[in-house]
Amino acid sequence: MSAFRFISFTAALLCACAPATLALAQDNNAAQAAEDAFGERQGVEQIGLYDEGQVRGFDLGNSGAYRIDGAYFARTSYLADPILQGVGVMVGVGASRLDFTSPSGVVNYRLRDVGTDNRLTVSAGMRDYETPFTDLNGALVSQDGRFGIVGGALLRPDVQWNGGGKGEAYDYGALAQWRPSDALRARAFVSYSTRDYNGDSAFMTTDGGLPPDAAPLTQHAPSWSTAIYDQTNLGLLIDARVMGWSLDASAFRSTYDPERTDFTVLAVNREGQGTATTWSTPSRAMWSDSAELRAARVFRTGDLSHRISIAARGRISETELAAAQRIPLGAFDYRRPPEAPQPVLIDDGRRGLDRVEQITGSLGYALAWGPLTLRAGLHRTRYDKSFRQLDGGLTERVQSRWFHNASATWALNDRATLFGSWTTGLEETGTAPKNAANRDEVLPPVQAEQFELGVRYALTPDLTLIAATFDASKPTTGLRADNVFTLVGQVRHRGVEASLAGDIRPGTSVVIGGMWMDPKVSGELVDSGQIGALATGLSRAVINANIEQTLPFAPGWSVDANLGWWSGRKVTAASDFQAQANAQLLVGTRYRFKIADNDAVFRAAVVNALDDRGWWGDPAEYIWKQGPRTYRASLTVTF
What pTM was estimated for this model as a whole? Predict the structure, then answer.
């Protein structure tokens, strides 16, 4: 979209707000919601060093460290935004407070609050790459406040993604709450998303170099390519306070139901010449059921405060495998999408099944004595995995292990707190990517371990600095010389990170973070020279800085900027070649006001304002093109 069209669209939204008076209103503002710089998302806005996919260089989509309002959640599909208040990444001192943490960090989904008043919020406008959207959210609350329901819909009938994908995207969700007393609350939710677009594609390098710049927003897949799937999440959460005990119970079902998914792999050299292949996968089912029971109590003996906790959590996950049809597209030039006649797609009916049954029992204890708090947890996990191959062959594996976590915080004074932790856990490693010979194979779990030491310091009552050093290790995956994606050695991420968040003065807030790490791989493949010691597809340094400034000369208005920078990433395991560093600058403004006594927010932003066109590398050895400059504008009104 041109800057002229963006200005015209913005002006039209502002004209619709002309008969307005000043007010303060709340909206999806990740910077204002963030307590630190480690990662926060609200709606389309994301800030911080990490996100739902990657923390300290580890893929949380693979390791599976997810929570819903602190409750254990085995995720197969994403939760829809209409039921979410926000999504936060928990590491360091924040994660150490959890009874059941994870060496790679934790992503916590926060559900929407029903509140106490009936309301309807309508948001409409334009998201990235001229994608129109309508977001409807509402709440109904009984007169006595005991029962309420909140939910909505996010509608994008003509969506465009930066990789060139175009299609339809719809998200729906609802949450009901029953609160008969202050000591009991029950919540149930449903989340449903559906996607229908023109398939996925990714580049690979054949000579260790990067191809020329690809045309922006071009789908490098044949015109008949498609991806159609549904995602559903159901949940029940109950929390109660009985005779000094805190009791929590939760149960979730998460499903991913693809009708058909086409994925095109484009193997090209640094001149942009090569071959393309589409893998078309027929319908298959993936689902996961997870549940947890927790009980905790705090009691005092003299100057000591004790907290004991017990918990049982488990999951059953099934991933169905189907034979993907290989469709060669022939020679490929990066300047044009590959094309070939649409083949007759054949589903041979064969299905494999990966099934996991996992149960964990936990015992935790915390001791607080003046400025010192000590926490420890002991966990026993039984992991039962069976794998039925497409040809009917069956393999099974059962393992039981002990894991633990321990942490300490020591308040030196009313400003400074030292913290440290030691955590071990069992983590998943995901599935083999489409470019691998064993594509879609579910890989075995691994044992992970992390040490951490840091300090939290309140520079002022409104501005907090957190700095830490971490050392995390576990077996890692990668492509072997025979193109099999499997465990290839041990990876160790040692690094430092820092966060500065809060108000530096009235009207000026900042969220600034930086991370540097040394991701090293070791093992037989490194010793033999088949792969390098530097981990593939990871940035060794990340910086994210956000600032928001209210304008005293323009009441209701604020301006903000967010700069993200990622150092270069190694492209393939076999070479040391790295893609260049990437930068993303967002600049925007907000206007909070009233329309006929209703709170309203106008939001406009320029995304990738520097128009950085670099390439990204990832651990599966794909390379992805960064999207071009784009614009956002929206108007949100709460009735």
Answer: 0.90
Q: What is the dihedral sign for C-alpha 55, 60, 63, 64? A: positive
Judged by average pLDDT, the poorest of 126-135, 480-489, 592-601 is 480-489
Residue 164 to residues 100, 148, 496, 615, 618: CA-CA distances in angstroms? Answer: 40, 41, 36, 15, 19
Write phi, then psi, for 275 (nearest 5 degrees): -130, 155
In this prediction, residues 274-284 reach a mean pLDDT of: 92
- In one-letter notation, the amino acid at residue 234 is L
The dihedral built from the CA positions of residue 138, 141, 146 and 148, taken in this order, carries a sign that is: negative
Whole-angstrom distance, CA of residue 303 vs CA of residue 466: 28
Residue type, 344: V
Domain boundaries, the chain: 3-638
* pLDDT score of 64: 67
Question: Scanning the structure block, which residue is given the tokens 């001791």?
Answer: 367
pLDDT digits 0-9 by tens, 615-638: 888 888 888 888 899 999 999 999
Q: Where are the beta strands (DSSP E) in 339-462?
A: 351-369, 372-388, 394-411, 416-427, 446-460
Q: What is the identity of the amino acid at 123?
A: S
Answer for the pair 260, 227: CB distance below 8 angstroms, yes or no: yes
Q: Which two tokens stand for residue 559?
A: 């301006």
pLDDT of the residue at 128: 93
Is the Cβ–Cβ distance between 439 and 279 less than 8 Å? yes
Tokens of 457: 């310091």
Q: Which residues of 472-495 are buried (b: 16+ CB within 10 A; e: fewer)?
A: bbbbbbbbbeeeebbbbbebbbeb
State the Cα–Cα distance between residues 86 and 70, nearest whole angstrom. Answer: 13
- Domain with residues 3-638, CATH architecture: Beta Barrel (2.40)
pLDDT above 70: residue 62: no
**Between the CA atoms of 177, 61, 293 and 180, what dihedral angle is there, to the nearest 10 degrees?**
-10
C-alpha to C-alpha distance for 382 and 360, rounded to whole angstroms: 6
